[in-house]
């Protein structure tokens, strides 16, 4: 099978990878749930290529993201739920409907603010239509947090939840109070570690991360950008360790933690001078 610029070839490749008996064992054992983390990862890699202004890499990463769409569509087709063509039809219908000023008869200048208003109105109509198509269930209790999107990154969702709760006074007034909460959560992790309770350790770790996001919000720091900055700092300092060891004719594997930690502190000191 040869490469192609036609989307049908990619669909054929995925179908072949998912064919029992002759396909790829790894691809065959995947499900929507196991592939979802890769879908999120590929979206982030697209954003990273854009941030780096690397259009060659962007082309490659967009292909990886497109593969995720094809993968999910193939699994859905195997369950007779929908196909890739249905995905394309759904988004084209949506785009045509949400842009009546482009695809319907219209004349005159349309202000960007009017376009945004139309877009939001149509989105609301679509949401109501989707709700009407679902089986009738007992109406859920109204919640202040009901409008928070579940599919967004966890850090972003945490901020949105905290901001919404703060509108009714469910919030701290002093960042130091958040620090007290962070210490409390750290103590609870330690207690869970003492018990050897892995599920509880994971749960308490999530609580600590939520509290840290709250602190970032209170000090006007974007937690995503703060963590990215720390990631970059870690890479710089670890590279310093590798280079310093290499200059001594040593490797990471042959070095002790104490040696690496001393070089880490050297890297920190150099950054301060």
Automatic annotation (TrEMBL):
<dbReference type="GO" id="GO:0046081">
    <property type="term" value="P:dUTP catabolic process"/>
</dbReference>
<dbReference type="GO" id="GO:0006203">
    <property type="term" value="P:dGTP catabolic process"/>
</dbReference>
<comment type="similarity">
    <text>Belongs to the nucleoside triphosphate pyrophosphohydrolase family.</text>
</comment>
<protein>
    <recommendedName>
        <fullName>Nucleoside triphosphate pyrophosphohydrolase</fullName>
        <ecNumber>3.6.1.8</ecNumber>
    </recommendedName>
</protein>
<dbReference type="GO" id="GO:0046047">
    <property type="term" value="P:TTP catabolic process"/>
</dbReference>
<dbReference type="InterPro" id="IPR004518">
    <property type="entry name" value="MazG-like_dom"/>
</dbReference>
<feature type="domain" description="NTP pyrophosphohydrolase MazG-like">
    <location>
        <begin position="30"/>
        <end position="103"/>
    </location>
</feature>
<dbReference type="GO" id="GO:0046052">
    <property type="term" value="P:UTP catabolic process"/>
</dbReference>
<dbReference type="InterPro" id="IPR048015">
    <property type="entry name" value="NTP-PPase_MazG-like_N"/>
</dbReference>
<dbReference type="GO" id="GO:0047693">
    <property type="term" value="F:ATP diphosphatase activity"/>
</dbReference>
<dbReference type="GO" id="GO:0046061">
    <property type="term" value="P:dATP catabolic process"/>
</dbReference>
<dbReference type="Pfam" id="PF03819">
    <property type="entry name" value="MazG"/>
</dbReference>
<dbReference type="GO" id="GO:0006950">
    <property type="term" value="P:response to stress"/>
</dbReference>
<dbReference type="InterPro" id="IPR011551">
    <property type="entry name" value="NTP_PyrPHydrolase_MazG"/>
</dbReference>
<dbReference type="InterPro" id="IPR048011">
    <property type="entry name" value="NTP-PPase_MazG-like_C"/>
</dbReference>
<dbReference type="GO" id="GO:0046076">
    <property type="term" value="P:dTTP catabolic process"/>
</dbReference>
<feature type="domain" description="NTP pyrophosphohydrolase MazG-like">
    <location>
        <begin position="176"/>
        <end position="237"/>
    </location>
</feature>
